[in-house]
Design a protein that fits this description.
single chain; Aspartate Aminotransferase, domain 1; Aspartate Aminotransferase, domain 2; 2 domains; 7-stranded mixed β-sheet; binds pyridoxal-5'-phosphate; Kynureninase; pyridoxal phosphate binding; pyridoxal phosphate
Length: 416
Amino acid sequence: MTTRKDCLDRDAQDALAPLREHFDLPAGVIYLDGNSLGARPKAALTRASDVIAREWGKDLITSWNTAGWFELPKRLGDRLAPLIGAAAGEVVVTDTTSLNLFKVLAAALHMQASDPARSERRVIVTERSNFPTDIYMAQGLAGWLQRGYSVRLVDTVDELPQAIDADTAVVMLTHVNYRTGYQHDMASTSALAHARGALIVWDLAHSAGAVPVALERDGADFAVGCTYKYLNGGPGAPAFAWVPRKHQARFQQPLSGWWGHAAPFAMAPDFAPTEGIGRALCGTQPIVSLAMVECGLDVFAQTTMDAVRAKSLALTDLFIALVEERCAGHGLGLVTPREHARRGSQVSFTHAHGYAVMAALIARGVIGDYREPAIMRFGFTPLYTSFADVWDAVEILKQILDEKAYDVHAERGAVT
Ligand SMILES: *Cc1c(COP(=O)(O)O)cnc(C)c1O
């Protein structure tokens, strides 16, 4: 049986342990919600102060050139690219995940519609269990186009091969499911989509900074994702979009704002897209928020995704084992796959009073979150989570369950 001492020993040997120093976490908190909002890099405070006081305050509008504001979406994209198996010049950090998804989805549909052999395809295939905004954006786009486009929802992964047929224009999947932590096999699923004549869009919201991703190698067509989750970019930090070089010339997205123009300051009346990844941009970016993304990426630059993944699997294996051992008989059901290849960096358990138990955990300093139906979600961020944290979190969970110390009528906030 694993003891707390064993966990402390593992921490002492953990090469990633020193990275925790780069984050400011309140004392007495075990933060297991980096999958929803990453913790704050210490450097973000000084960076924000510099952007606001000096770049904005003193240098004013000249900062678009002198502080590199104009180039920031692309420069951050280049820094993020290695984490997702993409090349420089293929990623921009901009807008929200929902918006970027709209852009790449629309561009993918347009590519298919422009190909005589595929122009009749009108279906976007995705999962019913996908994060709702992804489905909503696809439904919104399909409905707005009014040309017979529709969204086909599959209930299980096993149904995908049947659902991707000669009508399918685009397959749109989230690589790691937000609720269950299930991880798709990107290579085989991308190959399946291509074999059926479809393009494939991957949402990396729960993958970027959490699991190694190899977009290029695994044959993806487009990808989007968040920077405020595992990448620790800050609340509402701009998201990213990946458009590989092979598709850039044909990439036409409908949000054709001036930042995607070949010569934005020519102020010409007609839109002409810029070459390269810049055409995924739309308008002026929230520079203060965008600048924070770099602080999170700076921490990743000190390690590798393979090292992050190894620790992530060790943390999630330990959490599963300890919960099953110490909280047995309390009606917890493991939702997340045990198989490493199918698991992201979170562990989800169902409990009949999941919301109330999570509220009790948060009150005692163990911060995870709750997702309908009945799912308690625990995200493990190897950059700042220790093995002792895992032990302590399970100990507190055990106490709450043993004592039934949760209020089944706990009131819910607007955000769970
Ligand atoms: C978190 C998440 C989003 C969030 O989208 P926003 O536009 O940033 O609100 C979208 N898709 C998935 C799969 C997510 O996990």
